[in-house]
Amino acid sequence: MNSLTSMQPDLNAPNPLAGKQVPAVMAEATLRRQPDSQPRSMLNQCCLVQIYPADVIDGMMLLEENEFAIGRSEDADLSLFDSSVSRQHAVLIRGEDGYHVRDLDSTNGTLVNEQPIQDDHRLNSGDTLRIGSFLFRFLSAGSVESQYHETVYSALTRDALTGTLNKRYLLEAMNREISRSQRAGLHMTVIMLDIDHFKSVNDTHGHLVGDDVLRTFGKRVGEICRGDDLLARYGGEEFCMLLAATGREEAREIAERCRRVVVDEPFQTTAGPLPITASFGLACLDPNQPATTKGLLEAADQQLYEAKRGGRNRVCG
């Protein structure tokens, strides 16, 4: 990946998060840095990389102190200005065996690899750390460079919240697959998926519960996908499946299995179990007819609209 090789971080430069202004649609993060006391090396430094909201280029934070405080307070080493973050939320503590994270009785808790921690929890390289609506990856000393590039590549191709592929990757893959299908004379199908009444989940229970629903949705539907199927988060609560060499009837069967795996069991969230349904719209490529990525997505989206209009929790197309 030559494009990633050029992204090596300059660890001797001031951290660009200091005083950084994040667009209003995102929560805001600010890193408070102490003056350098000695040169830094990639081989003996640990770091956090902010992966949600995605900021893997500018959002690399070196851990240089024995204690690194995170919270909404302006006095924190890493200030996260978002209502889901407590003023004193968590602290990273350097011990003889590496860094540990301790929750400071925060309102929403501190999660490591999406599991709430109770006491001090030792961080391993590659662990994810959730603070409110923010998601970070911890990289340990000795592995920062290689894992940083893996983190960047993942951020360029995957949605950090749900683990599904992202819209950029989807569109590039669709362009390639349309050309391949037309050359080989094969059908392919695009399915648009949308979580029903998702706005009411956010409005009633808050965005952190909404995040729980999105993560579970991505996991359940992803488990139904075949090995060569592609599942991507298209935006918000909308997802898209790309099924290569798949005709309409087979695609409908797959969509029905996805619908059932969503509705059959309530989603476990921090607000308790919630009943969730989803609507599906599919469009099939005729290899003998001209087709574009935009046209297929619009056709699938129109069928999704029909599913919504018909009462939701159904497959159309």
TrEMBL record:
Domain FHA: 68-117
GGDEF domain span: 186-317
Superkingdom of the organism of origin: Bacteria
EC number(s) given by UniProt: 2.7.7.65
SMART domains tied to this protein: FHA (SM00240), GGDEF (SM00267)
Gene Ontology biological process: cell adhesion involved in single-species biofilm formation; negative regulation of bacterial-type flagellum-dependent cell motility
Top EC category: transferase
Gene: pleD_2
Stretches that traverse the bilayer: none
PANTHER family, sorted: DIGUANYLATE CYCLASE DGCM-RELATED, REGULATORY COMPONENTS OF SENSORY TRANSDUCTION SYSTEM
One Gene Ontology cellular component: plasma membrane
GO MF assignments: diguanylate cyclase activity
Catalytic activity, as annotated: 2 GTP = 3',3'-c-di-GMP + 2 diphosphate
Official protein name in the record: diguanylate cyclase
